[in-house]
């Protein structure tokens, strides 16, 4: 059904975290998801090896530029959602994944310096859209934001993006230990040991709001096409 890619040439912007949160949240709601691991660091694959995969999730590993389109299209026949975790660079895999995606999410930390990686990928997305003569829906999602306050630098970056006509999600992914620990422990976010990891409920709620907003965008898109 839907192909969603995570793209930002900046490493550490939250691509892999967003990919995993979206996939596990959709699976928890009964959906089926393929996670395409196109990052040579293989974080998604390593996560998958730590524990049994949650129901509804499959992982396709070691995906490179020469096979990414085939792997995505094969996955699309098997599961309702295909979520592509891309490398932190602007390479051929990234360009190809952008070209085939229904939605490109651009995870970005909310500082001016960090948002420059986001700006670069948005330029690439827009060039691809022109080349392909189709819209490539995309949106920035702010990551690792403060739970307590809306920082000045985040407000500033939000303003800059609004001025540049760049869509941003209302929900941001807050900085939380649970989002790190799930990669150390494996499995699903709500199953983390609540006595060892703080804020699991809040993290799970945050992931839920994130998924709600992404799914709402996809729904609007499919209605527009219909
Ligand atoms: N919301 C978050 N809260 C806490 N840690 C985070 C969060 N998002 C990312 N991280 C941590 O930051 C690092 C980079 O995040 P990651 O998702 O791997 O980014 P990318 O895939 O863009 O390189 C990882 O160590 C990850 O665990
Ligand atoms: Mg990554």
Q: What report would you give on this structure?
A:
It holds the Pfam family CbiA. It is built from eight helices and seven strands; from the N terminus they run βαβαβαβαβαβαβαα. By secondary structure, it is α/β, with parallel strands linked by helices. It has a single domain, classed as 3-Layer(aba) Sandwich (Rossmann fold), CATH 3.40.50. It has a seven-stranded parallel β-sheet with strand order 3-2-4-1-5-6-7, sandwiched between helices. The longest helix has 26 residues. It is globular, with a radius of gyration of 16 Å. The protein binds adenosine-5'-diphosphate and magnesium ion. Magnesium ion binds next to α1. Adenosine-5'-diphosphate (ADP) binds next to α1, β6, β7 and α7.
Give a brief outline of the structure.
It holds the Pfam family CbiA. The protein has 226 residues and is α/β, with parallel strands linked by helices.
SSE topology:
Elements: E1 2-6, H1 15-28, E2 33-38, H2 43-50, E3 57-60, H3 68-78, E4 81-86, H4 92-100, E5 103-109, H5 112-132, E6 138-145, H6 152-163, E7 173-174, H7 177-185, H8 200-225
Parallel strand pairs: 1-4, 1-5, 2-3, 2-4, 5-6, 6-7
Bound molecules: adenosine-5'-diphosphate (ADP) and magnesium ion.
The site of magnesium ion (MG) has 5 residues, from helix 1.
């Amino acid at each position: 059904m839907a192909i969603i890619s995570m793209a930002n040439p900046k490493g550490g912007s939250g691509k892999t975290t967003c990919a995993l949160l979206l996939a596990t949240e959709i699976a928890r709601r009964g959906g089926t998801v393929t996670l395409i691991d196109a990052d040579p660091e293989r974080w998604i694959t390593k996560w998958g090896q730590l524990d049994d995969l949650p129901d509804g999730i499959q992982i396709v590993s070691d995906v490179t530029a020469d096979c990414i389109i085939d792997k995505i299209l094969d996955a699309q026949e098997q599961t309702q959602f295909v979520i592509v975790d891309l490398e932190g660079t602007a390479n051929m895999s990234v360009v190809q994944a952008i070209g085939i995606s229904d939605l490109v999410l651009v995870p970005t930390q909310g500082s001016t310096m960090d948002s420059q990686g986001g700006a670069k990928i948005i330029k690439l997305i827009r060039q691809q859209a022109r080349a392909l003569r189709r819209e490539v829906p995309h949106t920035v999602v702010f990551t690792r934001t403060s739970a307590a306050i809306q920082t000045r630098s985040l407000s500033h970056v939000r303003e800059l993006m609004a001025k540049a006509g760049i869509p941003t999600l209302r929900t941001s992914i807050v900085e939380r230990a649970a989002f790190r620990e799930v990669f150390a422990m494996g499995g699903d976010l709500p199953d983390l040991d609540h006595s060892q990891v703080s804020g699991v409920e809040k993290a799970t709620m945050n992931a839920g709001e994130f998924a709600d907003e992404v799914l709402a965008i996809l729904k609007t898109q499919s209605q527009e096409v219909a």
